[in-house]
Structure formats: C-alpha cells, structure tokens
Protein 1
Amino acid sequence: MTKSEFQKEDIFPIGEENTGFAQYFTGKSYLAGLVPQPIPIANVTFEPGCRNNWHIHHGGGQILLCTAGRGYYQEWGKPARELHPGDVVNIPPEVKHWHGAAPDSWFSHIAISVPAENGSCEWLEPVTADYENLK
Ligand code: MN
C-alpha cells in the first residue's frame, strides 16, 4: 500500500516525511502538525515496519489516539500491546517505551504532548530484538 492509498483510511492528514526526527526512527514516518499551542497535537504516521526508538518523556507524558492501520506500543520490560483504531494509550512521564507500525501494516496515531514545565524527550536505542517476533 502506498502513502496516498493509506491516506484514504486515515481521517487526519498524513503530512510530510518526518525528516526532523528521522534519526530517532527505524523506517520512514510522516508528521502532520494539527495544533501547535497550547497543547501540541500531531498526527504521526508510520510506514510498515517503522517504529521510533526507545524513548522517555520527561516531565509530562504523552497520549496516543490510534486512528488508522495496525501498530504496537511497548513499555520496557513488558510485552508489546497491539494497537488498532480507537485504542488510547496514556503514557506516563519517565516510562521508557516505543510505538510504531506492525511489520506488514501502515499505522497512524494522534500524539498529544502533555504540557510540563521543562518537559523534554530523551531518545535512546533503536528497537531491534523486541520487534523481531511481532506479527
Ligand atoms: Mn512516546
């Protein structure tokens, strides 16, 4: 499936290739900013097999609203959780995790950054062994 074919399944714009954060992703992702302020909200789309590195939201967490395709969310030391449209993930601050597409499916989620004073994201290592056995 191409990006334009997947756009027909996604009710929000897929936007442009997410080059600004590409160094923290395996595979290609796309970013469409929806609301810049007072609460940053964006639609993030992952091509099949794409996922972000392990990372930690410091200060404020992150809320994911799954909108299209099939993907995963995993917290360090726990099994991966499969995600489908309508699923909600409430990621607390200070929890090491990743999110992204299934190996054979595009995936989109709305990402809401929980505001915090001096909030930041700490990017860590790519997801390798934990991804290998996912369907
Ligand atoms: Mn995150």
Protein 2
Amino acid sequence: MLSGRVAVVTGAASGIGRASAEALARAGASVVVADIDEVGSRSVVDSIEADGGSAIAFRTDVTEHEECAALMKRAVDAFGALHILHANAGIALPFRGDGFAPDIDPEAWDRVIKVNLSGVFYCAHYAIPAMIASGGGSIINTASSMATLPLGGLDGYAASKGGVAMLTKSMAAGCGPLGIRVNAIGPGYVDTPMNEMIFGNADLAAAFASGHADGNLQTSEEIGDLVVFLASDASRSLNGALITCDRGWTSFKRPV
Ligand code: NAD
C-alpha cells in the first residue's frame, strides 16, 4: 500500500508513535524513527528490520527547529524523498506543572506548548518543501480527544491539542494546491506510558474504559492502522480533518 513511500514519525520510540512507525513499515514505507529516546528508537528500528521492513533512527528533539530541519534532510538523504510525516511527539504533565490555569507553572505551560504545538509546526515547516520536491505527501498530526472535549484540569495540554487541530485545518488550505494533505487524529485514552498513572490503577482504568462507547480502552496499534490509512491514497478525500478516533469518547455524555 505504501511501498516506495518515505515516512518520518516523531515520538516514535514509544506508544502511538512506535505503533505508527511499525504499521507504516509493514505497509511498505521506509521509516525514519525520530525521538529524543535513542535506546527506544533503536529497538523500534530493530523490530521493523526483524519484520523485513526498512527504517533508520534519527535523534530529534522537536522543540529545536534546527533538529527538525536536520530530520527532514536525513530522510531525503537516506531514502531519496519524503512523502509522509506523522508529527506525533507529545507530553502531558498532570501533577507536574500543568493543571487548572491559575495553578499552572508557567514553565510547564511553555514546555507543553513547545513540544506539542511548536514541535508540530517546526516539523511541517521543514517537511513541506521536501514533500513538494518529492511530488506531494500526507501529514498526520497527533492531536487528542482533548482538542474538542477537554478533561478539565489539564488546561495547557488541552490548549496545545486544540492548537494542533486548528494549525492542521489552516495548513490544509495552503497545502492542498501543493499536492499535500494535512489531517489530525484525536485519540481517546490509549494504553501507553503517557497514561501510566491511569492504567496503573485498576479503578481509574475501569472508569476511563467505561467512557468509551464500547467500554474498551484503546490500543496504539489501532491508531497505527489509522495512520496508514491517512498516509495512503485511500484517504485522498480527507484534507484538514480532525479524525476523532476515540471509540466514541467525544460522541456522548457519560452518565453522572
Ligand atoms: P508516549 O509517552 O508513550 O510517547 C511519546 C514519545 O514522544 C516518547 O517516545 C517521548 O520520548 C517522545 N518525546 C517527548 N518529547 C519529545 C521531544 N521534545 N522531541 C521528540 N520526541 C519527544 O505517549 P503516547 O501516548 O504514545 O503519545 C503520543 C502522542 O499521542 C502525543 O502527542 C500525545 O499527546 C498523543 N495522545 C495520546 C493519547 C493517549 O491516551 N496515550 C491520547 C490522545 C493523544
């Protein structure tokens, strides 16, 4: 489905990014695994190669725009083109500075915005020219269910993800004529290291599971499958969309 395509995935050493990198590689893309976690990235490359796929790791901190520039250049140098960007690196800082606005540590606010929103912009800024030179492409930005339905009490994170959704829509207008599509995904609650605090507690995990329409928590793998669809021509009619891939989390009000 994606053979001959070249993909960059940020935050690819863990969770959703890892599943996305592995799914894109299974679909035939050559993948650049980008993360600040070099050990984790290496293990993703090993797993892709063991599965017969093609991948390289490239250490990238998405808060440093020069590193994002170097990342896109590395993809083109290694594989000859750039067609797919999954801008996915993100952080959440519950009880570590983020929270209700008056309680937020301004440094935590800056950090969350810098990783979750500026990082997405920096990657797009440098990926788009490389995609134009490659004949077009697809950008998938990881937003969140919180882009439309905040949990409350994590104001910085919700603002950053709302920003990702709107940046996606705004960029789609400019990208369309260039043969590039830009979409965002809004997962609900996925069992990844980011959510250790929720999923490490059986009562909390059950409460969060019941908020999904089918009563199930989400897996990174199901999000990876969606990324493959958005990267492929099968999703050619989608541009500027926020796909709420949240098993119904944002579709109904849970009983109180
Ligand atoms: P995770 O913690 O498992 O993975 C995040 C990855 O991003 C890690 O490998 C980490 O090293 C990397 N990273 C952090 N800061 C970085 C930086 N400055 N530069 C490069 N890489 C960096 O978390 P996850 O749950 O897989 O989250 C992935 C994305 O999905 C995030 O944007 C997150 O906000 C979003 N998301 C997660 C959920 C969920 O329920 N887990 C729901 C909605 C959206």
